[in-house]
Amino acid sequence: MQNTVHNNNFLFSLLLFVLFAMSLSIVSINAGINIRIGQLSILIMFAFVLLSDLKNSDINETLLIFFIFFAILLTFVSKNSSYSKIDEIKFVIKYALIFPATFYIAQWSVRNFTIEVFFKVLEIALALYIFMGFFLSVYPIPFLYNDRGEISGFQGTFLEAGWFALVVGSFTLTSILGRLDFNLKFSKIHYLLYFFSIISLVLSKNKTIWIGVFLIITFITLFKSIISNKENIKDSVKKLKGINSFYFIFAFIVFSIIFFGVNSVLSEPIVSVAMLEEKLNDERGKAYLVAVNLLSNSDWLGGYGFGFIQQYFSVYTDEIIGLNEDSGMLFNSYLDAWISVGIFGVLFHFLLLYFAFSRTHLLTMILPLYWFIAANTNPAIGDEFYYLFLGISYGFIIKYKKEVTI
Description:
Blueprint: H1 9-21, E1 28-31, E2 33-36, H2 37-55, H3 61-79, H4 88-112, H5 115-138, H6 161-181, H7 188-204, H8 208-227, H9 235-242, H10 245-265, H11 273-282, H12 284-297, H13 308-314, H14 333-356, H15 362-375, H16 384-399
Antiparallel strand pairs: 1-2
Helix pairs in contact: 1-2, 1-5, 2-4, 3-4, 3-14, 4-16, 5-6, 5-7, 6-7, 6-15, 8-10, 8-15, 11-12, 12-14, 14-15, 14-16, 15-16
């Protein structure tokens, strides 16, 4: 271990504050520009960890150079576009500062805290998210709860129910996979926490989270079948090989029965034929066609610039549900990056996923997959949580770097 900060109460509290502050989507301050308190807390902790790494000669120069290089490159592509844009500087600041800072403190925290302490912070943060979800559903405090009228939901302090579900699902997944990977004890408190997490996900009525779970279970089952006859398998991948496939099939069947059972008794089902038709004809399906048309008009180069999407839909005459003058990004993050900053934007995000993926642990396989799925159906790459969890996965790869041959 590089540093000796494992059980420092200040660092523990600081990381916990950052994780909670990141969920306070509408709490912001005006410091020349409007900045969310979560983003400010990230920058404060980033300054601290950089000083710590300088003191210990432990700065990850390669990581910083990677982010600086792409921040300059993507800014150049955006600035080179002659199209009208709204809030271009907001995206430039995020790519140059907020996103790198989030990724860096995530991997730093994994490397510098003990495993037990790190997961304790994550699980306390998860408990806070769930508590605020239930509390604000009863007492929606105006400066914490983003009231969007009829489309408001079970969302806690998050911007909307979809983001609440994605983040709570990711924290829950990280806790479970991490404890399996590192043989950490599951107590009754953990099972209670996971129970309320599942209840919260159902109450959020989010669809992406269930799609993600189905695809993840399918991925694990297929991956297990591929490695089943391999001999040279190490670590938690070897652990996966030793698990009876019946458990995955059983989990898939039980999950399907519970989901469709709950879905059928809800007055407003999570999934319905009418909802799917609306998604295809008036929401995501329609937005996809617009995105393809924009790319086609640019000879598939994209590069319209950061903020072009918001400008485009502020004057777009054909209604698409969820896209208007307030929309900064498309539903599909990678199409959005392609349209905004061309193939370099897609390359940046795919490289980030590549760095965060490893077969050494269940967690480092599943977390990048989870957020890849989320980013294909949500503007996930525009939020700090995307970089937080990819940074966590990358941190575990660095902390326990091992060769795995399959």
